[in-house]
Structure of Sugar lactone lactonase YvrE:
Amino acid sequence: MRVMQTLASGFGQLESPRWHDGRLWFADWTAGVIHAIDQDGRIEAVVEHRSLPLCFDFLPDGTPVLASGPEQALLLLSPDRTLTRYADLSALSPYGSNDIVVDGRGNTYVNNINFDFADGPPATGTAPGFVALITADGRARMVAEDLAFPNGMAVTADNATLVVAESYRHRLTAFEIADDGSLTNRRLWADVGDHSPDGICLDAEGAAWYADVGDRCCVRVTEGGQVTDRVQLDRGAFACALGGADGDTLFVVAARWPGVERLMEHAAWEGTVISTSAPAPGAGWPGPGA
């Protein structure tokens, strides 16, 4: 029987779990705060930045990089906790970026749903979402389009493949990564049925974990869509990450959907960080070695 452990609770909407330097980092969107929790349960509020979404990852040298909606930019978090501009994203979209992943070569991928979520989904048949590449010199360019609500992203350990969760198409989509960071040869990685995959991570056996809010679960699938494991929760799973001392702990950030009328009521979400064992350690990016 799987043991589920609650590591922390009392947050708002949670996203972007990342295992880094012996701690689990995660973003509380409604509070506008990025936290880190160590294995003894000590929680630190690392930085406050009001942004919806508020997603982040780490550059190869360990520097946190945030996707800021208000700034329409990527921001670097310095050791003294100040934020400085890394890349201007304003030419790509008037809307805030969603998820972010940095590969092992220092390329940063940021996606954008490219519509106003508060106004509801775009017209039937349209998929305005995209993925942008930000190179180490801070230059941004679009590298993939026609994505239906791009959400979680992950890069394989060999830096060869980017996997994107398309929430509105109910699938994981893969792209080959060219030497210059461009994305080519789009393909279906896994059809996930009626689930709407949110945050994802990859493991050393080549499988992916994805979080699903509506069905309140995290599911492990192989390429092609075979389900090999499932973690059921009592609230929506927004994202997941692999980490811990041996890399084989699955961390899930979960919350209750409070309804549109209570969207910004922090306590209504009952955001919680949960952990459990996984059958294989994490691999790729974001990853347990980040």
